[in-house]
Amino acid sequence: MFAPSALEARSLSLGYGDRRVVHDLSLTVPPGKVTVVVGPNACGKSTFLRGLARLLSPASGAVLLDGRSIQDLPSREVALRLGILPQGPVAPDGITVTDLVSRGRHPHQGWFRRWTADDDAAVTAALTATGTLDLATRAVDELSGGQRQRVWIAMALAQRTGILLLDEPTTYLDVSHQVEVLDLLTDLNETEGATVVMVLHELNLACRYADHLIVMRAGQVAAAGLPAEVLTEQVVGDVFDMRCRVVPDPVSGTPMIVPIGRHRTGSPA
User: Fold this and answer.
1) CB atoms within 10 A of CB 212
2) Which residues form a coiled coil (predicted)?
3) Top-level CATH class of 7-259?
4) Which neighbouring-strand residues pair with 64?
């Protein structure tokens, strides 16, 4: 089991050059829980995740890992405690699946430590969990988009960190594989106690899998808390500019969003 770590954004502002994307955002990620971040396009979700992962330096404010500024921590210490799967990662040309997933073990190597049986076991477990063991000898650039996405997730799992940040981990996956990946991340949370933070677009899957839901709009938090308390018809309308009905999911009982468009909104005549 992982020891829960506290991850907090305090008055955090992020951007690119003079353009601010996240504005004075403060929140605490619940340790040992699955947190899902949702919001419309260009609202700052990915930028916020990059800030949490120290891939983007704050314009102001701070990200705290167990009460210490993540910017002040040694890179290896951060890599041992926090893993990140960014959006659209690019693999080196010709690298095999096993070699890519093995890179998740680099933070554990240190200056003099050699590859061990524990490293082999972590890589094999990650490949098995993501259903990519049969692809182990294949070149990553030969794989389909969905296969590549599962391999990148395997690399993040092989890193074996207590906090795992994932930016749209279900991209390129068909519906069945989306559910498989989300089940896998939930298993990791429940069996290992890992804190999982991910950005998702699909609201119904976000509600089903999130212990804690963060709704972002225009670089700030519009609402946060339990999905049943957060994702109301009013919030969906205000944040996503979409009319809907919110009904209980028949499988999980969590909120299910039923969009209301201009067509096919009633029984045929």
Assistant:
1) 19
2) none
3) alpha beta
4) 8, 69
